[in-house]
Amino acid sequence: MIRVLATDGMEKAAVEKLRNSGFEVVEQFYEPEELKEQVKNFDVVVVRSATKIRQPIIDAALETKKLKLVIRGGVGVDNIDVDYAKMNGIEVRNTPNASSASVAELTIGHMFSIARYIGISNFTMRNGKWNKKKYEGIELGGKTLGLIGFGRIAREVAKRAKALGMKIIYTDIFGPFEGYEEFKFLTLDELISSADFISLHIPAAPDKKAVIGPDQIAKMKDGVFIVNCARGGVVDENALLDALDSGKVAAAALDVYEEEPTKNERLLNHEKVSLTPHIGAATAEAQERIGEEIIDIITKFFK
Questions:
Q1: Among 205, 207, 267, 261, which Cα is nearest to 239's?
Q2: Cα gap 38→40, rounded to integer Å
Q3: Pair (28, 85) in one structural domain
Q4: Based on the domain organization, do 48 and 75 belong to the same domain?
Q5: Quick check: helix, strand or coil at residue 121?
Q6: Do residues 8 and 30 make contact, with C-beta atoms less than 8 angstroms apart?
Q7: Are residues 252 and 295 both part of a single domain?
Q8: Beta bridge partners of 4
Q9: 81 and 208 housed in the same domain
Q10: Cβ atoms 135, 120 nearer than 8 A
Q11: Which of 231, 237, 258, 270 is catalytic?
């Protein structure tokens, strides 16, 4: 029997479908040292963002050579040493289509939150304050949204932002994309100096270097808004906080952090920051789609 380890949980219906198809599914999170031992006993490991499949885990799996497939339930695979796994005969897959809409909607939601003080006004009202005059916001319509990275999620954001009347500009390491001529391609420097809102949709760099740091922020418009629902670390948190304090950045929204759960008290308590705990793909619809993609990947792989 093919054994599947789901370390970070899996949608219940997907688990049942796999079991009904003859697969053994174990739902259990293991700390790295314990995972080294457990991974030797499974054909498939399914992870989300909490579990890291690094070289030591892969080396442990190679002792029995049972592990054949690692699946990331989500888009990014930066928590997996993909090249090392593949070099050793372990296939790595992800579910790139499943969560695009949910992350895009959260991105738009965060943009509304920081433009209209939704998060902070909710908090201050619950503390007895009626800051009606203090929270004069701005409209998204007519503003320029700059998208750093133009993959599936960014395109879903662009579609929704266009419907709100925003002007869309984008940059991507692969250059301009055919079929999206309605949106303007710019270099990174051109984009960050032109946008009213900047939203990141890129993986973490291999060297973990931030794409948005002090130098990039200095080139932005005064009063820019920054949203990161992509990966922690692509925005330098300390540089962002300094820019929020100075007023260079009007407000920021984050769903991802350099450390998760974040312990950055300065970030957690900043009134100009809208925060969510890495919930981009946390919708019932996305989880169902992720589950279906995982089933499809596993069943086809072992057909």
A1: 267
A2: 5
A3: yes
A4: yes
A5: helix
A6: no
A7: no
A8: 25, 44
A9: no
A10: yes
A11: 231
Number of domains comprising the chain: 2
Q: How far apart are CA 209 and CA 30, in angstroms?
A: 29
pLDDT at 138 over 90: yes
What distance in Å separates the CA atoms of residue 51 and residue 33, rounded to the nearest whole number? 12
List C-alpha distances in Å: 233 to 99, 106, 229, 295.
Answer: 21, 19, 11, 31
Per-residue model confidence (pLDDT) at position 208: 81
Query: Does residue 112 sit in the same domain as residue 252?
Result: yes
Average pLDDT over residues 46-64: 95
Instruction: Give the largest Cα separation in the chain, rounded.
Output: 66
- 119, 248: one domain: yes
The CATH number for 21's domain is 3.40.50.720
Residue 261: asked if its preceding bond is cis (omega within 30°), the reply is yes
Dihedrals phi, psi of 288, to nearest 5 degrees:
-65, -45
Rounded Cα gap, residues 290 and 303, in angstroms: 20
The answer on 85 and 167 residing in a single domain is no
186-209 pLDDT per residue, tens: 999 999 999 999 999 998 887 889
278 in catalytic set:
yes
Of 33, 37, 260, 285, which residue is the catalytic one? 260
CA 158/CA 73 separation, integer angstroms? 24
From the candidates 93, 110, 278, 289, which is the catalytic residue?
Answer: 278
- Listed in sequence order, the residues at least 6 apart from 150 whose beta carbon sits closer than 8 Å to its beta carbon are 158, 170, 171, 172, 177, 180, 201
Residues 76 and 183 in one domain: no
State the DSSP H helix or E strand holding residue 45, giving kind and residue range, or none if neither: strand 44-47
What is the C-alpha R_g of the chain?
21
Domain extent, residue 67, equals 3-95+283-301
pLDDT attached to residue 49: 84
Whether residue 110 lies in the annotated active site: no
